[in-house]
Amino acid sequence: MRRRASRGLLSSSADFAELMWPTRCVCCNMPGELLCDACRDSLPWIEQRWACPACGAPHGWLTCTGCGADAVHASVVGGMEASAWECRAVVCALEFAGPAALMATTLKDAHELRLASVLAAAMATALDEASSWPALDGEARFDRAAVDAICFVPATPAAYNRRGFDHMELVAHALANLLDLPLADVLIRCASKDQRNLGKQSRAENLRGTVRVIDDVSDARLLLVDDVITTGASVREATRSLLSRGARSATACCLARVW
Ligand SMILES: [Zn+2]
Ligand SMILES: [Zn+2]
Questions:
Q1: How far is the CA of 120 from the centre of ligand 1 (A)?
Q2: Tens digits of per-residue pLDDT, 146-160?
Q3: Residues bordering ligand 2, an ion, CB closer than 5 Å
Q4: Rounded to 5 degrees, what angle do the CA atoms 72, 78, 84 make?
Q5: Which of 36, 67, 145, 203 has the fewest Cβ atoms surrounding its Cβ within 10 A?
Q6: Cα–Cα dist 252/152, whole Å
Q7: What's the gap in Å between 27 CA and the centre of ligand 1?
Q8: pLDDT over 80 at 68, yes or no
Q9: pLDDT for 5-47, tens place per residue?
Q10: What is the CATH number of the domain that holds 136?
Q11: How many whole angstroms separate alpha carbon 101 and alpha carbon 258?
Q12: Which domain holds residue 148?
């Protein structure tokens, strides 16, 4: 009886909150849903067919200058060649334009935690599309059957202390549920300087050695998730750590790509 009563109380609290502070679209502020139909239809989706398989850039197939994949393509023999980045493939769902930026910042800075499942759904959609297109190794960019677990690029200690939660842990958890894959919480971040005002080379140097693996990842094929790729420094550093500890491969999936 006590359990039934508490469920009823929770339900009415949620109803009361919705009445007082109705859910609004993060992009246009219309009451109703976190992401209204009109804004969902206008999201700047990256067409996986044309995206760079090595760094997720939106227009990089064959001619990407963001990662050196153009040079790798030129040297491909028999369809087998290492990726220009350490990840075996990178899949980004959206260009980092208005709606994608709002979704990412509203989750982590405005603490709208319900957005984690919206971001995860967008990433799952991109992964589904990317499963039809090859990575540089000739295999599908994403194959659920060829992934053992999902892990995520963790927040820096400063960001975690500021927000009180790790937004990518929430997104990775939601994506793991959608894809029915286990979540492997295997990475930690050590302190580094704020990346936002650093250039490409400085970002990579600033992150060197700051992502550590804290569990056994031997021979694991991992799907590594993060929110935004700018220079790729965070995803690449996390991938280097995973591979150096014996992971077989890491495929990266991010919500948005700065381009
Ligand atoms: Zn809207
Ligand atoms: Zn590229």
A1: 18
A2: 999 999 999 999 999
A3: 52, 54-55, 57, 60, 64, 66-67, 69
A4: 20
A5: 145
A6: 9
A7: 5
A8: no
A9: 455 555 677 677 667 777 899 889 889 889 999 998 889 999 9
A10: 3.40.50
A11: 10
A12: 38-257
Q: How many structural domains are present in the chain? A: 1
Mean pLDDT in residue range 212-231:
96
86 domain-assigned = yes
Residue 20 lies in a domain: no
Integer CA distances (angstroms), 215 to 88, 151, 186, 225, 239, in order = 21, 11, 5, 17, 14
Contact assessment for residue 136 and residue 82, using Cβ atoms and an 8 Å cutoff: yes
Instruction: Kindly give the distance from the C-alpha atom of residue 38 to the centroid of ligand 1, in angstroms, as a whole number.
Output: 6
Assess if residue 19 is contained within a domain.
no
Q: Is residue 124 part of a domain?
A: yes
- Ligand nearest 135 Cα, by number? 2
